[in-house]
Specification:
Length: about 230
Amino acid sequence: MILQGDMAVFAGRLLLAALLGGLIGLEREYHGRDAGFRTHLLVSMGACLMVFISEYFYLRFGAEPATGILRLDPTRIAAQIVTGIGFLGAGAILREGLSVRGLTTAACLWLVAGLGMAVGVGLYFPAFFATLLSLLTLWVLKKVERRVRRGSFRILTIHCSAEDGTLEKLRVFLGEKKIDIFDFSLERDLMSREMKVDLTVRVRPETQTIIPLMESVAALEYVKKVILR
């Protein structure tokens, strides 16, 4: 039986888990992520509830001698939470071409599950401190990350004439634009004397955006069509 004092502790832990998880969720909601405020709040509360139940069962039946039928291990539910949240996090990750989206949201879901577990067993200070560090990471370090910009990877498909020297001209042109070529494939159409070149390129952040690059490539006299993916 859960005593009245235990019920107050249980309610307080659930509310605290909801608050901490909701703070992380608000940041994700602000950035337009599908797994936002409500999702993070529910994950944190759910983890807190399951850990509290695990603790309750251990306190309720843990004093009884272990038998072949009843063996209590309060860490098993926590371990299953860690496993289960992995499936939820995987659903938040999307792949679009060469880019992967949702990794930060998946990490946040994993984090709020940990926050809920910490609150569920009464580790309030670690939960508060982890929430503070997480918000600083999501808000402050995001600005730092933007300053340390990386090159963007794209697949550039160019339909052009199959005359001798065209590939060399393209290589020289992209080199002048400081576009690094990491991979390419080539298809030739002998009937129309055209070819399709698929280039995996990296645009350096200090040069230009991808749209002006497409316009400059399309303006070349031997280029028929440009497709960006």
